[in-house]
Amino acid sequence: MMTANIKVSIKHLYKIFGSDPKSVLEQAKSGVGKTELLDQHGHVLGLKDINVDMRDGEITVIMGLSGSGKSTLIRHFNRLIEPTDGQILIDGVDVMTFSEEKLRQMRQTDMSMVFQKFALLPHRTVLKNAGLALRVRGIKEAEADAEATKWLDRVGLSGFEEHYPHQLSGGMQQRVGIARALTSNSAIMLMDEAFSALDPLIRTDMQDLLLELQQDLKKTIIFISHDLDEALKLADHLVILKDGEVIQQGEPQDILLNPSDPYIEDFVSDINRARVLRVRSVMKPITDTPPSTSGEVDFDATLEDVISHSDGDTSRVYLVKQDGKTIGTICMKDLVRALVPRAASDEGIRSQVNAA
Amino acid sequence: MAFYDSLFDSLGLSEWCGTDTKGGPMTMAELLAKSKGIDQAETSLWDLPFPSLDNLHASCNAIPRTRDMTSGVEQFFLDIKSSLQFVLDPLTQPLSWALDGSLWLFVTTPWWLLIGLTLLAVQLVTRSSPITLLVGTMWFFLLFIDHYTFAVQTMAIIFVCTGLSVLLGVPIGIAMSKSNRLQRGMIPVLDMLQTLPSFVYLIPLIFLFSITESKLYGIAIILYAIVPVIRLTDLGIRLVDQDIIEAANAFGMTARQKLFGVEIPLALPNIMAGVNQTIMMSLAMVVIASLVSAPGLGVLVLRGINNLELGVGLVSGLCIVILAILLDRVSKATLARVNVAQHNS
Q1: Which of A27, B32, B189, B268 fits A32 for a cystine, CB–CB 3.0-4.6 Å?
Q2: Which of B250, B254, B265 comes nearest A80 by C-beta?
Q3: What is the value of ipTM here, to two decimals?
């Protein structure tokens, strides 16, 4: 992957809910389990030893089912929830050392947030909602409006500036939410299940919008989702959370091909792998003179593309090209094998788990 | 010889109780016993009297009677009266000025000017022509039956008292919504203010202030009417959608920006509902306050009761109903406009 700087980093983060979280921190650190902590000490272990690095300009998706602690985790980045223990580094500076005033400044300028339930101000127009972050900073009304208009236009809402949020559909309201976050011009964007409340079709639209914006803007986006399809579509870096622990993180393709845990295997078994997996993840690096090939495919094409290209003929072999250069070969047999969750990757998992 | 004599004797307290000297006013029971000539010599268990203050006093003089207690309360109040007056008098003096000024202004303004201004204000606030028409019709009816001056006096008092209630009640409500401890402390006080019979308010106030001062009824009305606006401000701010508060925090709003930019606007429908209640309650109290020289329609009601002038009482009662309808419709229409403006899907 690209070598990018680490923008946000979480180190040994613990969050314990209860009357006196500090008192049971040591037990949690020494590995006392979630159920035991609840039964014997009456405290809930929310997050346990989270270590995640998020690189500049990438989308990091934190995925987990409800109760996995993902929404708790995202609120730690801007300290809407205080951790019990651990470090949150942004550009190498520990957020935990910030005073209230400094923290507020960071929330105003360095981070913006998009919410599942939109959380727009119902009594202000779309334009004023979008310009919220700038007005909070004390920037003049006219200037804030101009910037807000620009971003509303960018998310496809020009003409709706004077509407009130309740006059818009859910999808449009979330566009306002995104415009509000973009108007703040912060480098980091936190998105808390931003598309979960939307219809499937609208959700796909919004995902496309986000990816398109991201191509230009290169923000550091931390995205929370409970939907694996969404996670795989958006993620440069995927973190899977279960019961407050990170059980696997890495490149999404890699997780899909080599799930390290039966839980994740369960998860990924429902995925349309042909649409998600890409040629680069399945191809073999070029070794010697390529055997007779039936054509060329792009390294970033999905397997679905290749299958339709091959007319279902499994005997074919394709050359894989990246920027016009041949970087490997993909043979249809490997491709088809990769579509079956377990059989193809069985060996892979075992060896990886044993090695770890 | 009283029932509990033997008890005090057996406890060896007869000395502490003192001699059987009867002093002070007689209790009701003593009076009855005397008039009927009943001798309390023989009492069976069936007639066991409850060891109340009066019954114990019958056996032991050192124990005070119930009426000593009430006169004690009275004495206590009289003792602190001068210092209380010293603090409260200057503090509440502006209220007298405001009431007198408002009464003077409302009464001296010619009727056509006052009604014109009222209708203009109603139209601006409610943006509803039917309501403006209703207000106009009712004013003219009041004028026609020569109750206009009384009604205007009542309105002047309500105007000042409601204004002050909102001015004081909203900040108190906001403070309550921010502090659970303050809320826990305030709720019993508010409950008491709301359940205390309205006449009872007047008693300590009559002691404290001269009955000729308008602040006397002003304070009574405000104490009675301020409760709903405090309660509903507190409730409204606590009910503001937590997601929106979270968003406000996430964008780094200061407490001030949050309060004026988010919490108060979103709580406004509830606050307005509280203001509506406050207006209605001050109207209820202003009638009772005529007992302590508050001018207005209440005076006519009082005349109706005192002199048994049935017609005067009933007609002025009807006029109060008309005022109530006006105030209620106008404030509800305003509330509805606030609600529409921020209808949250």
Answers
A1: A27
A2: B250
A3: 0.81
